[in-house]
Design a protein that fits this description.
Belongs to the protein kinase superfamily. ADCK protein kinase family. About 60% of the residues lie in helices and about 10% in strands. The chain has about 525 residues and is of the alpha+beta class. The strands form 3 sheets. Strands 1, 2, 3, 4 and 6 form a 5-stranded antiparallel beta sheet that branches. It is globular, with a radius of gyration of 32 Å.
Length: about 525
């Protein structure tokens, strides 16, 4: 009860801040029931005068880091917040002042169990700070006497407790939204909050970030155009992550990239193709690919940093993504519709032809434009919007993909404004489909099935022996149980006989007394 009151109070505070910052202007009151419409009108009267653009970012920044993360998450969900609010949320920046150097050093020493001078020969002031952690540059002396430059990421003190409290309040508010507006259940607000909670929980253990970095490095070891820094495992713990220092130019500095002689058009294409390759081929992708996390190194390779937020796609989701992208490229709208039904995303009582018609309404307008005017991320956004007409629930596993694609496309177009997204995507999509769904893919699936069957056949004798032992044990236990039951029956039978005999003796005695 007390926690519900606390969450309600927190929700009222959130509503108050949103009202004061003018963020309620994005709520469409036409779709609200009368009692909520009245509350909205009262809230709008609390707006501070002289408010300009960026009202939602201002409100969420004032509410704290948890709400900044939530806002960035919702920026890719126009189906929930609307297009105007989604565009406004894109202004959000996860930038906060750094915490003191002494606190950072104390955290590092407590995590690694050594004083700073025994670990690094130099340790800089923070060079970047965000809501969860900040980064320092350090020099590490190797056993052979050489020095290595590393980036050291340190967790912000108290951040876990703050996020845990805010996430609980968000869970409560999601339940309230579903209770007040049952039709909102299709958007799965509680699942959206849980997805955010899992993402943030993973981001707050730097050992998991090091593991993600290692896994991605293994996936891309044969990709010549993309690389990631190597983690330093012996200097990594829950609150500290050390990794290779990257010397390069950030992708948001286009002028410096051009001055260094790099091909910006090729680099833009690499950004798109690398992301799709990781998502479709590997099912594991960097989900925070904003320009500040991407560099081009002196060799012209794309380098990513900051692996706190990663996305995963199962084989079913990867096939779904690949087939709908290829369907739009080839204008095969019926195939796009069929993929939705095959994946079970759209209920079977709907018509495939009607759904294909709705998808055509998205696809045909984009083919009337120049290739550089077509947004692949916008197509996915419109597609998810249309699917609401066919009772397709929000797929939480695709939310992070959609979010990242918006950012990746923006980065690629900042390098080459005339970049053709579809031409860049097509070879990646076709290669994966041919390898997994074409003749070679089917042959490989058959080969794996045969190997699996062979393993099962090879295990049959062992399984038979195990089954026999289990049956013997069951028989033995059954016999023991039968013996126990028989003994119990004999005891109960004797008891019943003696009881019956006693009753007859009593009855005979009473009869004799009565006759006498």
């Amino acid at each position: 009860m007390l926690s519900a009151v606390a969450h309600l109070a927190r929700g009222i505070h959130v509503g108050w801040v949103m009202a004061r910052e003018g963020a309620l202007a994005f709520v469409d009151d036409a779709e609200l029931p009368p009692h909520l419409r009245l509350v909205l009108r009262l809230g709008r009267k609390l707006e501070r005068p002289g408010l300009g653009p960026g009202r939602l970012p201002a409100a969420l920044t004032r509410l704290g880091p948890s709400y900044v993360k939530f806002g960035q998450f919702l920026a890719t969900r126009p189906d929930i917040v609307g297009m105007a609010a989604a565009r406004d949320l894109e202004r959000l920046q996860d930038r906060v002042p750094p915490f003191p150097q002494g606190v950072a050093v104390a955290t590092l020493e407590a995590t690694l169990g050594k004083p700073l001078p025994e670990i690094f020969t130099s340790f800089s002031e923070p060079i970047a700070a965000a809501s969860i952690a900040q980064v320092h540059k350090a020099h590490l002396r190797e056993p052979d006497g050489t020095e290595r430059v590393v980036a050291v990421k340190i967790m912000r003190p108290g951040v876990r407790e703050r996020f845990a409290r805010d996430i609980q309040a968000m869970r409560f508010m999601a339940r309230v939204v579903e209770a007040l507006r049952p039709e909102a259940e299709r958007l799965r607000p509680r699942e959206v909050v849980e997805t955010l909670a899992r993402s943030v929980a993973m981001e707050m253990d730097l050992r998991l970030e090091a593991a993600a970095l290692s896994e991605l490095a293994e996936n891309i070891k044969d990709d010549p155009e993309f690389r990631v820094p190597q983690p330093v495992w012996e200097l990594t713990g829950r609150d500290v992550l050390a990794s290779e220092w990257i010397d390069g130019i950030r992708l948001n500095d286009r002028a410096a990239i051009v001055a260094a002689g790099h091909d910006v058009a090729a680099l833009g294409q690499t950004v798109i193709q690398s992301f799709l390759r990781h998502a479709i081929r590997d099912g594991f992708f960097h989900a925070d690919m904003h320009p500040g996390n991407l560099f081009v190194d002196p060799a012209g390779r794309l380098v990513a940093v900051d692996f706190g937020i990663m996305g995963r796609l199962g084989l079913k989701e990867r096939r779904f993504l690949a087939e709908i992208l290829l369907g739009f490229i080839l204008r095969d709208y019926r195939r796009v519709a069929e993929v939705h039904f095959e994946a079970g995303y759209v209920p079977s009582h709907h018509s495939v032809d009607d759904f294909a018609q709705a998808i055509r309404a998205i696809g045909e307008p984009i083919h009337q434009r120049r290739a550089d005017e077509i947004s692949m991320a916008k197509v996915l956004t419109l597609l998810f919007d249309v699917t609401a007409l066919f009772d397709m629930s929000t797929r939480t596993e695709l939310v992070m993909l959609q979010k990242t694609m918006v950012v990746v496309e923006g980065v690629a177009r900042s390098l080459d404004p005339r970049l053709d997204m579809w031409t860049s995507a097509e070879p990646v999509v076709r290669t994966w489909l041919a390898r997994n769904l074409g003749p070679l893919g089917r042959a490989d699936q058959a080969r794996r099935a045969v190997l699996t069957l062979a393993d099962v056949v090879a295990d049959v004798p062992d399984l038979a022996q195990r089954a026999k032992r289990v049956l013997v044990r069951l028989d033995e236990e059954g016999l023991r149980e039968v013996s126990r039951v028989e003994r119990r029956i004999r005891i109960e039978t004797k008891r019943m006989v003696w009881s019956t005999l006693a009753l007859w003796v009593i009855a005979g005695s009473l009869l004799a007394i009565a006759l006498r």
